[in-house]
Design goal:
10 helices; single chain; alpha+beta; binds iron/sulfur cluster; four-stranded antiparallel beta sheet
């Protein structure tokens, strides 16, 4: 099978970055996230990144359009929803599944978000199979194969001496052709898929949750949550945003920025009413959205088992323990 020798990886990345905007997982200022490649930046490939690649399609803050008003006249200036061709290198299977969830939300059901589409349509994704699972990973309980990402354009497998690479889409085949001179025949076999030690039992969960909206368990589960929103900001599938405007150089600029269902203001209405007034309703919303509403609407979980929220929640509100408790209580 063709591949890239480890000793040739930086050469390959330099060739790709000469033609495309290339993003690789890297550690910068103590945080691992996808960064624009440069030859001084060593790719971080030993584990998944702390921040997911969702910000490359759905940035934390994004300008949408500008407008000016003159008496009764409103002049709208559309900001181009375009993007240069980009390549994402080293996306893990859980994050690839999460990009599939974002595709459903931003491009599915007859509604297309032009800003998301411009970036997504111009992106080629090279996924990297995991060769070991972290203690907080439970992707194989959420329908993800940690060693394969069918939604990617290319799939890479790390071996002792290199990275085997295979095309999964036509764009992937063209890409391999384009960089064929950087590839060589590697003798190693694809590694075995790792098994996650952390598990979540999800059989029958959607049907059970459909009967649990008013259950007293939500008050108990939400007791220790401090509504900081860390879980939603780190989650690769969370996609709620707020739209605001600011005056810049005499123009009003409309922009959107990430928001979180864990915040009280998220559902606060202009008249003062709040349909989710306490953390019980907000925590319930977070879990029902991922474990009931998303499967009902899109036929897939809104959680891909990446474990980021487990790792970083300051009060240790662990989604796998929540799932266990939801299964144990009487509906
Ligand atoms: S990270 Fe933990 S404490 Fe913060 S909002 Fe999420 S569940 Fe609550
Ligand atoms: S809910 Fe937690 S474990 Fe699931 S995808 Fe989001 S961050 Fe990852």
């Amino acid at each position: 099978m063709k591949g890239i020798k480890k000793s040739q990886l930086s050469n390959f990345l330099q060739q790709v970055s000469a033609k495309y905007s290339l993003y690789v997982p890297a550690q910068v200022d103590g945080v691992t996230r996808f960064q624009k490649y440069s030859s001084e930046r060593e790719p971080f490939l030993t584990a998944n990144t702390q921040l997911s690649p969702k910000e490359l399609f759905f940035p934390q803050t994004e300008q949408l359009y500008c407008y000016e008003t003159h008496k009764q006249e409103v002049k709208v200036e559309e900001l181009a929803a375009s993007s240069e061709p980009q390549v994402l290198f080293g996306v893990r299977p859980c994050d690839m599944q999460a990009i599939g969830v974002l595709d459903d939300v931003f491009l599915g059901k007859g509604y297309e978000d032009v800003y998301y589409r411009a970036k997504r349509a111009n992106t080629l994704i090279i996924a990297l199979a995991c060769s070991q699972a972290e203690a907080t990973c439970f992707c194989d309980s959420m329908g993800v194969d940690p060693a394969f990402a069918p939604q990617a354009d290319l799939m890479m497998y790390e071996t002792e001496d290199g990275y085997l690479i295979e095309a999964l889409s036509d764009q992937g085949k063209d890409f391999l052709q384009e960089f064929s001179s950087a590839l060589e025949e590697l003798r190693s076999e694809k590694p075995q898929a790792p098994a996650c030690e952390l598990k979540a039992e999800t059989d029958g969960l959607v049907e059970k949750l459909q009967k649990m909206f008013e259950h007293s368990v939500w008050a108990e589960l939400s007791r220790k949550c401090i509504n900081c929103g860390t879980c939603t900001y780190l989650c690769p599938t969370c996609h709620c945003f707020d739209i605001e405007s600011k005056t810049r150089g005499g123009k009003e600029v409309k922009f959107r920025c990430w928001d979180s269902c864990m915040y009280k203001e998220y559902t606060l209405m202009a008249g003062g009413h709040n349909p989710r007034p306490t953390k019980k309703e907000r925590v319930r919303q977070r879990f029902l959205h991922k474990l009931q509403y998303m499967p009902e609407r899109y036929g897939k979980w809104g959680c891909v088992g990446c474990g980021r929220c487990i790792d970083k929640c300051p009060v240790n509100l662990d989604i796998t323990k929540v799932i266990r408790e939801l299964r144990e209580v009487e509906a």
